Amino acid sequence: MIKKWWWKALGLILLIYTVIVGMAVPLKPGVTGFEVVRSGVSQEDNILFFTPGSTYTFEIRGYNMNLSAAKTKAWLKLNESGASSDVINPAVSSDAVVVPSSESSGLVTFTLPMKFPTTDDYANLTLVLSNAVDGQAILPQALNLQLTADQKGTDSAWSDAYLSEIDVVDSFRFPYRSVLNETIRNTFFHIPLWFSMFIMLIVSLVYSIRYLRTGHIKDDIYASALVRVSVLFGVLGIITGSLWAKYTWGTFWTTDVKLNMSTVAMLIYVASLILRSSINDVDRRAKISASYNIFAFAALIPLVFVIPRLTDSLHPGNGGNPALGGEDMENTLRAVFYPAIIGFTLVGFWIASLSIRYEMIKDNWLTRRQ
Amino acid sequence: MNKSRFILILGVIVTSISQMKAESAAIDFLRSTGKIYSVIAVIVVILIGIGIYLYKIDNKLTKLENQINNEQ
Asked: What is the pTM of this model?
């Protein structure tokens, strides 16, 4: 199996597929700017106090959304919690369609209704844009209003007619997330590196246990080669994560539980490599590194998976953030994500197999020399 | 000497990457000018290069193993 070529070629092909599709597929449209325009001067954040019944003009900036290509409609949707109307997720439409001032920016005017169908003291409105060419774009929490008691109730301006007027464009595109933007493509590289590292470490653990049971040096060779490649993938995972953080969190590193704990786990495995190189006797080295490998894996699980979920963390999947199943993963992403995991795993095993075969030849040669 | 030079070059590349302030609100420049495809081509070329390198090592090892098997 270790000398067969088909799985090695498959791994490489999957990686090439990941790069080509992962980088070339465009994102769905999004909204990057939504600001009130007041007598020709754009306003600063959050100073304006929106009042129901007034009319406001907003400047919209879109991403991957051609506002001038087709008639772009806009709605403000009231977020559901506490809505007391018969209609779920009611929305009020703009006074007119978006007036484009360029391909990606335009002006839209909204007249806020006198009453809002909610029982909360605050109304949280989401902007929904739609046009026939690009589909729909959403800006969550575009407007926030305070409501007094007499501003709550039903109003004819609210309806769910927008649900039938929204354009659905059927094309393969990745989701748009406001902070992530184009960096969402990193899900095809950063996460699969860690997944494949973890798979290789499990297999390495199996071989370590096998060595302790059988004493065959071949099992130790397998285990150590897999640890070496896993350390490489882990370091690459940390570097890619750090680069991703620079563009989304604004910094290469932060005192975050997940980051620190996974670095500690990596250091434990790096220590196992150093430990191996410090012992000359082959059998002693194999036995000690096999037991250390078992300990290192037993430390990896709580460090990387358990502890970060127990406390606050910025990293997705930990500390109260939704994980891969939440807002950050969609079926379009999965179409490249799963092949990427398989591709990285197979290529990781390929690199390990070369190291294994080399060590076996060396071991063979050395034992014959005796 | 070679290793420290490599680390130096890597350090220069990483610090220059950190100078790039990618504005998240900006329209994707590379895609709009069609140059994303050159990025894809570069990465694919690198991947194929790594693949060929691994393949050659694989072949060398196979030859060695066959040699040892024949001698035995």
From this structure: 0.84
> Which strands sit side by side in the sheet containing A135-146, from one edge to the other?
A91-93, A73-78, A122-131, A135-146
Distance set, CA A299 to CA A179, A214, A306, A313, B28 (Å): 33, 24, 10, 20, 42
Smallest Cα distance from A237 to chain B, Å: 15
B9: pLDDT strictly greater than 80: no
For chain A, report the end-to-end CA distance as a whole number of angstroms: 29
At A59 the three-state DSSP class reads: strand
Contacts of A26 in chain B (CB under 8 A): 31
Structure letter (DSSP) for residue A205: H
Q: Residue A309: is its pLDDT beyond 80?
A: yes
A92: helix, coil or strand?
Answer: strand
- Cα distance between residue B46 and residue A30, in whole Å: 32
Cross-strand partners of A91: A77, A159
Q: In chain B, whose CA is at the least distance from the CA of A65?
A: B27
Nearest by Cα to A355 from B55, B46, B58, B56: B58
Q: Are A357 and B68 inside 8 Å of each other by CB?
A: no
A273 pLDDT band, cuts 50/70/90, is very high
pLDDT at A171 > cutoff 80: yes
CA max distance for chain A:
95
* Residue A111: strand, helix, or coil: strand
Average pLDDT, chain A: 87
pLDDT tier, A83 (very low <50, low <70, confident <90, very high otherwise): low
Distance between CA A293 and CA A224 in Å, rounded?
Answer: 9
Residue A31, SS3 per DSSP: strand
